[in-house]
Amino acid sequence: MRLTHIGVCVIAFLIAACSGGSLQGAQSAAVIQILEPIDAPGERGPYDLGWHVELQLDRMSDVRPGDYIEPFMAGEASLRLDAVLQEHERGAPEVWRGRLHDDDGQRGSFTITRQGSLIMGRLRAGQHVYSLEGDEEARVGLYRIDPDKLPPPGPPMVPDENENDNQ
Question: pTM to 2 decimals?
């Protein structure tokens, strides 16, 4: 069965991961390789699902804006997202931004930042947003953000009128 939307691809992967489906058959050349599910991701933040991932960011060191990255993210055979790099900022921190797409051209986006051994990022696929985060043990997790677990927006910030008097 051909998946026609990035969100459907990710959801299909999530269902397989949560039901104990095998994730070992994926391609090892992916920049983001999905591994095993994370137990209790909600203890780490406003997340409902999470997976350990292996990153191959060095694979992106020679990629230039406009270059196609194939595959960008992979898990089981039904999950494969490719990407086109839009921007790569070298230095400290190093930042990659780009577009995600599946075989049908459906789109999403990603931003990944690396400073030393610290890695973080955001991926938007379909209606879902994912956070890429390192932990204390140098493992990286991919977490799906649950919008119902986010705090409500606070009141707007209004500058103090006296704040500029001290300058």
Answer: 0.69
DSSP for residue 154: -
The tens digit of pLDDT for each residue in 34-43 reads 899 999 999 9
Instruction: Write out the two tokens for 128.
Output: 């879902």
Residue 36 near residue 18 (C-beta atoms within 8 A) = no
83-107 residue pLDDT tens: 888 888 888 888 889 988 776 666 7
- pLDDT tens by residue, 54-74: 988 888 877 888 888 888 888
Q: What are phi and psi of 17, to 5 degrees?
A: -65, -40
CA distances from residue 76 to 12, 13, 17, 23, 44 in whole angstroms, order as listed: 10, 7, 9, 5, 25
Residue 21 tokens read as 């489906």
Which residue reads 């493992």 in tokens?
A: 139
Residue 5, burial from CB neighbour count under 10 angstroms (0-12, 13-18, 19+)? middle
- What residues contact 82, with CB distance under 8 A and at least 6 apart? 68, 69, 70, 71, 72, 100, 101, 102
Query: Residue 15 in 3-state DSSP?
Result: helix
Nearest of 108, 141, 142 to residue 125 by alpha carbon: 108
In three-state secondary structure terms, 60 is helix
